[in-house]
């Protein structure tokens, strides 16, 4: 038996019901801590599974999103959507100049959720804040 045990830790974290492609895509999103775009996930996934197509990656991301395993972050005109494996509630700030995206957590979002629910008359499930502005690097005078 000459089974090479390369990166078998993937298997431990595999969720039930996931195809190989989906669990690979999930794994890529989890290891990239930079909120990758679908294209970046595709690029990484191909290193492990050269035959995987962009459509498969894209569909897997959509599946994982619906399953609640990844979160899609809308980019508000800053290119493609990003994907996040941190599905616990947190907020994002996106740089309007370089597109850098960072995580932050704001105390008081629960109160915000309540007033948003009141204003929209929706039953609140979640609220995500995306701050658009200039990151510290882009604010530096050149
Ligand atoms: Zn920036
Ligand atoms: Zn995030």
Helices and strands in order, then pairings?
Layout: H1 9-12, H2 20-31, H3 38-48, H4 54-66, E1 71-73, E2 82-84, E3 91-95, E4 101-104, H5 109-120, E5 130-133, H6 136-139
Parallel strand pairs: 3-5
Antiparallel strand pairs: 1-2, 3-4
Helix pairs in contact: 2-3, 2-4, 3-4
Residues 35, 84, 86, 90, 92, 103 line the site of one zinc ion.
Summarize the structure.
This protein has about 140 residues and is an alpha+beta fold. About 40% of the residues lie in helices and about 15% in strands. The radius of gyration is 18 Å and the shape is flat.
Provide a descriptive summary of the structure in words.
The protein is of the alpha+beta class. It has two domains: 87 residues, Orthogonal Bundle (Arc Repressor Mutant, subunit A); 54 residues, Dna Ligase, domain 1 (2-Layer Sandwich), CATH 3.30.1490.190. It is built from six helices and five strands. Strand 3 and strand 4 form a beta hairpin. The site of one zinc ion (ZN) has 8 residues, from helix 6.
CATH topology of the largest domain: Arc Repressor Mutant, subunit A
Number of domains: 2
Alpha carbon gyration radius: 18 Å
Helix-residue proportion: 25-40%
The strand count comes to 5
Helix/strand/pairing category = alpha+beta
State the helix count.
6
Second rung of CATH, namely the architecture of the largest domain? Orthogonal Bundle
Ligands in the structure?
zinc ion
Tell me the CATH superfamily of the largest domain.
Winged helix-like DNA-binding domain superfamily/Winged helix DNA-binding domain
Strand order of the largest sheet: 4-3-5
Which residues sit in consecutive blocks of at least 5 with pLDDT less than 50? 1-12
Q: List SSEs in N-to-C order.
A: HHHHEEEEHEH
DSSP strand content = 5-15%
Determine the oligomeric state from the structure.
Answer: single chain
Please tell me what the overall shape is.
flat
Largest beta-sheet characterization: 3 strands, mixed
Mean pLDDT: 83
Q: What is the terminal separation in angstroms?
A: 60 Å
Highest-level CATH class of the largest domain: Mainly Alpha
